[in-house]
C-alpha cells in the first residue's frame, strides 16, 4: 500500500461520527439546554441590569463567549474520549498494528471531534438567535475561527486522551484548567472591565485571545488586536501538532 | 523459497530491565501453520506484538514478505492480521460494521461481497446487525477473527485462539484455521494447549524466558525427541525393581502393580524382547501390556524443564 491511507482516515472518521450519532439526543440537547439556561440567567435576569459593552447589548455580547466555551469543552471531550476509550478497552492494538501513520490517525480522530464541535457551535449560534438580536460582521472570519479553534482544541484533547491513565485524569485538565481559564478569559465580560492588576494578569490567559478574536468576527471589536488572536491560536495549534508528532515518534503511553 | 516472515536477532528489554525476548532468529514459511509454544511469560505475546508494530523492539530486524517492519511499516503491516488473546472490540459496534471498519483501517477499499462471505464463513452472517455486546464469548472471538481477516492478510497471528472457549468451539476453530491454511494464509498461533499444536501445526517453536529453544517440523520433532513407554500390568505387585533388571530404564507405579519401561522409539533395538525374556526368567508374570508414545506436551515439558 502506497500513498495516503484514505480508507483508514475515513474509517476512523466514520467510526467516531457514528459514536456521536449513538448519543445524538445527548450531543445536541445538552448544548441547546445549557445555552438557553445561560441566556435566561445571564442574559435575562442579570444582563438586563448590565450596560451595553462596546456598543453591544449584554445578551448579544455573551454569544461568542458561550460558543467558545462550548467549543473548547466539546473539542477536548470528543477527541480525548475518542483515543482514550480504545486504550481503556484494549482496542488500541488495532490502531497501532494498522498501516496508518500518526498524521492519518490524527486527521481521522481530530477531524471527527472538530466536526462535532463546529456543528454544536453552529447549533448554539442558532439557539442564541432565538433569544437575542445577532449580527456577524465578518462571517468568513467567524467560521475560520470556529474551525481553527475546534481543530486546535481537538488536538489538545487528543493529547490529553493519550496522556490520561484513568477517567479521572481525563477530566482533570478540562475541569481544573480549561473551564476556569474560559470563565476568566472574557467569555462573560470584557477584560477592559477589570481593574489593574487583573486586566494585565488576564493577558496571560490564552483563552482571552481566542474569545477576543471570535468576538471580533461578530462585532468588529475585541479585547486584544485580531492579529494577536490569530497568532496565538496558530502557535497553540503548532504546539499541539508538535506534541502529537513527538508522541507517535516515541510511542509515549501508546507503545511499550 | 523466501520466508514470508524473517526475524533476526530480535530482542526486547523493557524499561524495568526485564528482558522479554533474547536475540530471537526465526523464519516462517509461506502457507504453513506455525505453533509457538511456551509457558506464561515466555515471550510469545511480546514476539507477536513486536512483529505487528504494537511493541518496539530493542534490537533486531523483522522482514514481512521482504518489507522491513520498522522502516516500511505500512507495507509490512498491511500483510498481517492479528487476533489478540483478549477480546478487545468496541462492544457498541455491530458485527458487520466492525469488520468493515477494520478493512478500511488497513487501507482496503470497501468490498461488501468479501466481508459478507467472511461473515458467512465464520457463522456470523445471522448476527451481522447485532451489537457485539449481545454476542456470546465464542461469537465475540469469531468477530475478532473476522476483523483480523477483513483486509485479506497473508499472515494471520492467533494469540491463544481457543483460550477459555468450550471444546466444541475449539474444534470449530481448528477447522476454521485449517480452511484458512487451505486458502494459502500463513498462520502463526501461540497456545498453551499442546494438543492444539499437535493437531494443526506444520512446525513448532518452543520459547521460554525470551529464548527460542527450538524450531522443528512437528513430526520430525516428535520422532527426534519422542519416547515410547511400555506398561506391564503385573500379576503380583513388586516391592522393588530387581537388580537383575538394572540394564533397562524401569519404574514402578500403581503401588508396584505396574512396571513401566521407557525406551527410545528411534533406537535400532528397543530392548523389549530381552526384557520380556528376563521377566520370564525371573518368574515375574504380567497379565496385560500397553504401549504409548510421548506427546508434544511431554516433549515441551522436558524441554522447558531442562532449561529451568
Number of domains of chain A: 1
Low-confidence stretches of chain A: none
The geometry of chain B reads as elongated
Largest sheet of chain B, described in full? Answer: 6 strands, mixed
CATH architecture of the largest domain in chain B: 3-Layer(aba) Sandwich
Helix fraction of chain B, binned, reads 25-40%
**Ends of chain A: how far apart?**
26 Å
> What profile does the largest beta sheet of chain A have?
none
Broad structural category of chain A: mainly alpha
Read across the widest sheet of chain B, the strand sequence of neighbours is 6-7-8-3-9-10
Distance between the termini of chain B: 36 Å
**Beta-strand residue percentage of chain B:** 25-35%
**Mean of the pLDDT scores of chain A?**
87
Supply the CATH class of the largest domain in chain B: Alpha Beta
Radius of gyration of chain A: 19 Å
Q: Give the topology string of chain B: H per helix, E per strand.
A: EEEHEEHEHHHEHEHEEHEEEHEH
Number of helices of chain B: 10
Q: Overall mean pLDDT score of chain B?
A: 89
So, the CATH homologous superfamily of the largest domain in chain B? P-loop containing nucleotide triphosphate hydrolases
Explain what you see.
The complex is a heterodimer of chains A (256) and B (308). Chain A has one domain (6-250). Chain A is 75% helix and 0% strand. Chain A is built from ten helices and no strands. Chain A has helices at 6-22, 24-46, 58-89, 92-97, 102-129, 139-163, 167-183, 198-202, 206-219, 226-250. Chain B folds into two domains: 5-223, Rossmann fold (3-Layer(aba) Sandwich); 227-294, Alpha-Beta Plaits (2-Layer Sandwich), CATH 3.30.70. Chain B has ten helices and 14 strands. Chain B has helices at residues 44-52, 73-77, 95-105, 112-121, 137-149, 167-182, 194-200, 218-225, 272-281, 296-307, and strands at residues 5-13, 19-28, 33-37, 59-64, 67-68, 80-83, 155-159, 186-191, 203-208, 211-217, 227-234, 250-253, 258-264, 286-293. A six-stranded mixed beta sheet of chain B has the order 6-7-8-3-9-10, with helices on both faces. A four-stranded antiparallel beta sheet of chain B has the order 2-1-4-5. In chain B, a hairpin with a 2-residue loop joins β4 (59-64) and β5. Chain B is elongated, with a radius of gyration of 24 Å. The chains are: A mainly alpha (256), B alpha/beta (308).
Amino acid at each position: 500500500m502506497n500513498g495516503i491511507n484514505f480508507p483508514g482516515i475515513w474509517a476512523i472518521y466514520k467510526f467516531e461520527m457514528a459514536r456521536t450519532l449513538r448519543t445524538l439526543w445527548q450531543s445536541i440537547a445538552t448544548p441547546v439546554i445549557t445555552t438557553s439556561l445561560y441566556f435566561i440567567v445571564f442574559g435575562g435576569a442579570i444582563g438586563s441590569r448590565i450596560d451595553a459593552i462596546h456598543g453591544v447589548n449584554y445578551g448579544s455580547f455573551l454569544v461568542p463567549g458561550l460558543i467558545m466555551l462550548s467549543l473548547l469543552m466539546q473539542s477536548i471531550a470528543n477527541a480525548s474520549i475518542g483515543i482514550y476509550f480504545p486504550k481503556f478497552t484494549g482496542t488500541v492494538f488495532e490502531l497501532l498494528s494498522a498501516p496508518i501513520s500518526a498524521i492519518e490517525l490524527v486527521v481521522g480522530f481530530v477531524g471527527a471531534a472538530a466536526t462535532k464541535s463546529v456543528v454544536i457551535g453552529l447549533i448554539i449560534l442558532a439557539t442564541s438567535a432565538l433569544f437575542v438580536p445577532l449580527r456577524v460582521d465578518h462571517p468568513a472570519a467567524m467560521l475560520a475561527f470556529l474551525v481553527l479553534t475546534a481543530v486546535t482544541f481537538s488536538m489538545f484533547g487528543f493529547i490529553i486522551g493519550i496522556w490520561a491513565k484513568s477517567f479521572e485524569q481525563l477530566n482533570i485538565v478540562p475541569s481544573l484548567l480549561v473551564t476556569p481559564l474560559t470563565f476568566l478569559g472574557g467569555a462573560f465580560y470584557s477584560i477592559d472591565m477589570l481593574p489593574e492588576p487583573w486586566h494585565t494578569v488576564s493577558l496571560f490567559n490564552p483563552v482571552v485571545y481566542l474569545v477576543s478574536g471570535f468576538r471580533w468576527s461578530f462585532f468588529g471589536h475585541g479585547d486584544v488586536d485580531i492579529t494577536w488572536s490569530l497568532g496565538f491560536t496558530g502557535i497553540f495549534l503548532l504546539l499541539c501538532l508538535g506534541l502529537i508528532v513527538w508522541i507517535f515518534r516515541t510511542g509515549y503511553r501508546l507503545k511499550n | 523459497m523466501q520466508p514470508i516472515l524473517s526475524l533476526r536477532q530480535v530482542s526486547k528489554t523493557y524499561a524495568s530491565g526485564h528482558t522479554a525476548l533474547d536475540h530471537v532468529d526465526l523464519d516462517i514459511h509461506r502457507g504453513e501453520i506455525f505453533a509457538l509454544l511456551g509457558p506464561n511469560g515466555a515471550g510469545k505475546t511480546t514476539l507477536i506484538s513486536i512483529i505487528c508494530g504494537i511493541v518496539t523492539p530493542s534490537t533486531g530486524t523483522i522482514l514481512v514478505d521482504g518489507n522491513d517492519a520498522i522502516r516500511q511499516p505500512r507495507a509490512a503491516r498491511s500483510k498481517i492480521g492479528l487476533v489478540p488473546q483478549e477480546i478487545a472490540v468496541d462492544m457498541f459496534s455491530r458485527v458487520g460494521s466492525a469488520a468493515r471498519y477494520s478493512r478500511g483501517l488497513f487501507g482496503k477499499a470497501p468490498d461488501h461481497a468479501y466481508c459478507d462471505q467472511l461473515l458467512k464463513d465464520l457463522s456470523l452472517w445471522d448476527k451481522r446487525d447485532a451489537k457485539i455486546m449481545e454476542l456470546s464469548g465464542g461469537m465475540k472471538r469469531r468477530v475478532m477473527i473476522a476483523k483480523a481477516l477483513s483486509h485479506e492478510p497473508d499472515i494471520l497471528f492467533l494469540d491463544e485462539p481457543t483460550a477459555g472457549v468450550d471444546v466444541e468451539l475449539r474444534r470449530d476453530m481448528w477447522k476454521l484455521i485449517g480452511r484458512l491454511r487451505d486458502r494459502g494464509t500463513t498462520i502463526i498461533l501461540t497456545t498453551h494447549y499442546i494438543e492444539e499444536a499437535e493437531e494443526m501445526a506444520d512446525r513448532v517453536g518452543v520459547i521460554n524466558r525470551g529464548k527460542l529453544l527450538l524450531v522443528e517440523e512437528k513430526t520430525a520433532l516428535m520422532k527426534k525427541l519422542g519416547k515410547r513407554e511400555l506398561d506391564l500390568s503385573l500379576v503380583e505387585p513388586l516391592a522393588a525393581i530387581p537388580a537383575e533388571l538394572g540394564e533397562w530404564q524401569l519404574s514402578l507405579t500403581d503401588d508396584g502393580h505396574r512396571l513401566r519401561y521407557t525406551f527410545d522409539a528411534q533406537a535400532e533395538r528397543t530392548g523389549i524382547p530381552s526384557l520380556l525374556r528376563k521377566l520370564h526368567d525371573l518368574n515375574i508374570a504380567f497379565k496385560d501390556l500397553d504401549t504409548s508414545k510421548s506427546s508434544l506436551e511431554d516433549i515441551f515439558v522436558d524441554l522447558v524443564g531442562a532449561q529451568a
